[in-house]
Write a sequence for this structure.
């Protein structure tokens, strides 16, 4: 099946707007060809699966469909933030990336793909005071262990908002650590959701934690503290 037909399939599967097909095609081209894109996946077919389809599978979550604002942490090559911004043109998306080279690529991708509802934020999650308690959804893919991601995300979420984390095979120890951290941060984890973004995938899960109580005032801790002394 050609890349164009596969993109059309993603548009149909998730009921995306007409503009999404061309924008996703441009993004796939950038991820495949631009040497500044922070990805080792360059084969066009794998880009469609591992980046675009994998990002868009989060649209199966009703919380994400209902969101008005999303923050994508450690956005790297702009995934999942850029595909989600394309899919949800009425939602404001902030792509938070502290690395200057990666941030510059995201800015170029926003322009090249004509994405008007998103911005590139050059900051660490812990230092981004402008984002505190402002988001319905925080996303993270390939960023850090669950406990660390939960600590990054909780201060940025509104009450009732949710953290969505992409993971592969389930890890009981990591999940237990993430649950322990969540309870300290005002988050309530749901059972991991098995998803199938493309036919060949074997193990893919979305971990969702909903903010049910205010995050204690001592968070966010200073940059680096979450990794050095993770909650449990």
């Amino acid at each position: 099946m050609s890349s164009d037909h596969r993109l059309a399939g993603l548009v149909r599967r998730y009921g995306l707007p007409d503009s999404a097909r061309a924008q996703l095609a441009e993004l796939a081209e950038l991820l495949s060809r631009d040497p500044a894109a922070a990805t080792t996946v360059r084969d066009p077919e794998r880009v469609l699966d591992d980046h675009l389809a994998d990002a868009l599978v989060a649209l199966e979550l009703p919380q994400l469909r209902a969101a008005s604002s999303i923050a994508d942490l450690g956005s790297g090559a702009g995934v999942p933030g850029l595909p989600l911004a394309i899919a949800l043109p009425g939602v404001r998306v902030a792509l938070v990336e502290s690395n200057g080279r990666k941030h510059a690529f995201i800015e170029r991708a926003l322009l090249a793909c004509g994405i008007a509802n998103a911005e590139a934020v050059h900051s660490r999650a812990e230092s981004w005071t402008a984002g505190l308690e402002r988001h319905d959804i925080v996303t993270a893919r390939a960023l850090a262990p669950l406990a660390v991601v939960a600590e990054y995300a909780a201060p940025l979420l509104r009450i009732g908002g949710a953290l969505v984390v992409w993971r592969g095979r389930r890890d009981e120890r990591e999940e237990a650590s993430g649950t322990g951290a969540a309870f300290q941060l005002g988050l309530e984890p749901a059972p991991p959701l098995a998803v199938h973004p493309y036919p060949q995938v074997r193990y893919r899960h979305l971990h969702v934690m909903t903010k049910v109580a205010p995050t204690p005032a001592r968070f966010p801790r200073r940059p680096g503290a979450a990794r050095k002394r993770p909650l449990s």
Notes: The chain has nine helices and eight strands. The first strand starts at residue 69 and ends at 73. The chain has one domain: 57-228. The two ends are 46 Å apart (CA to CA).
